[in-house]
Specification:
By secondary structure, the protein is an alpha/beta fold. It has a single domain, classed as Divalent-metal-dependent TIM barrel enzymes (TIM Barrel), CATH 3.20.20. It is built from ten helices and eight strands. The chain has an eight-stranded parallel barrel with strand order 1-2-3-4-5-6-7-8, surrounded by seven helices. α6 (about 175-190) links the parallel β5 (about 155-160) and β6.
């Protein structure tokens, strides 16, 4: 079994682009035997800094899940009405233009590699509901428009982010999971390439404030035949270098088997395995992987790769049944 990795979250150049340092980082990623490919961030172009650099440095066999959350959050900082679920016509139009750019990026990457390399495009149900209006009807309209574009075989999947709730300040505060699942169920009745749902462990736990929240979201999506993937990303209620109740992509908590992890992370190996079991046939899911960050950012090259190795080994132990 091989996995997707949101490697951008622990890149050594997150706070300042350096092509040489990032090239060395990608060279190290290519040595990961169980890496299927990248959960790759979309900011508005194929690569945030340099498309040509990206195409020259990727492994030719990698597959990709394009995640639109970085560009979506950047756009929301400038326009709170931005989003494919926005009730504001201009905000929704801006989000559709952004998604059209994502569709173009899919085509560019596939053409370069000469194959369908992009498995899925993760979209998000912005805007933040505490700042702007959103609705299922707006989301349906947007996704219907997007379904008519040529995604070259890539599926459109909603990555559920924390929904707006009354009892704590949200991180994203987008649409509720049930609303997203309703929309997908309605749309899929007329689509040749069905859409689906990806659950991010940390974002579901952030929303629900309990570790079983991610499990409940996985089960809800599976029961409606909409679960397409799970991305493991941790979170904590403790004030550490990762922050308390922040969507900061904590690694799993350390253990005898997980040497490089994050103290006070709520994400444990046992909980990760429980979620994979709840998905039904986890091996059949198109998207299984992790997105972690590292503190401090100045960690050594060996330590950075060690975090990746230890995290993916947790998944390996589930699929090899060494639990």
């Amino acid at each position: 079994m091989k996995y997707y990795l949101g490697a951008y979250a622990l890149s050594p150049t997150k706070k300042g682009w350096d092509a040489g340092i990032e090239t060395a980082f990608y060279d190290d990623l290519k040595q990961q035997h169980n890496l299927k490919g990248l959960e790759h961030p979309f900011y508005g172009s194929l690569h945030e800094h340099d498309d040509d650099w990206f195409l020259a440095n990727i492994a030719p066999h990698w597959d990709y899940v394009l995640t639109c959350i970085p560009g979506t959050m950047n756009a929301l900082a400038l326009n709170p009405h931005f989003g494919i679920a926005s009730d504001n016509a201009e905000g929704r139009a801006a989000a559709l233009a952004f998604m059209q750019s994502a569709c173009s990026a899919v085509g560019k990457l596939n053409r370069f590699l000469g194959r369908q390399a992009v498995t899925a495009v993760q979209v998000h149900t912005a805007p933040a509901r505490r700042h702007a209006g959103s609705s299922k009807s707006a989301l349906i309209a947007s996704l219907r428009t997007m379904a008519a574009w040529d995604w070259q075989g890539a599926s459109i999947v909603i990555e559920h982010c924390d929904a707006y709730v009354d009892n704590h300040v949200p991180s994203k505060g987008f649409l509720a999971l049930d609303d997203e699942l309703d929309v997908l169920s309605e749309l899929n009745q007329g689509l040749s390439v069905p859409m689906g749902m990806v659950i991010n462990w940390g974002r579901s736990v952030f929303e629900t404030r309990r570790t079983q929240g991610a499990l409940a979201h996985i089960v809800a999506a599976r029961q409606r035949d909409l679960l397409r993937g799970i991305i493991f990303s941790g979170i904590s209620d403790q004030m550490t270098a990762y922050g308390a109740w922040r969507d900061s992509h904590m690694p799993a908590t350390p253990s005898e088997r997980v040497i490089l992890g994050a103290q006070h992370s709520w994400m444990t190996e046992a909980l990760m395995h429980e979620c994979l079991a709840a998905s039904g046939d986890a091996q059949a899911l198109p998207i299984v992987g992790a997105k972690i960050s590292i503190r401090p950012d100045a960690s050594s090259k060996a330590e950075r790769m060690g975090y990746i190795t230890d995290t993916l080994a947790i998944l390996d132990r589930y699929f090899s049944r060494e639990v």
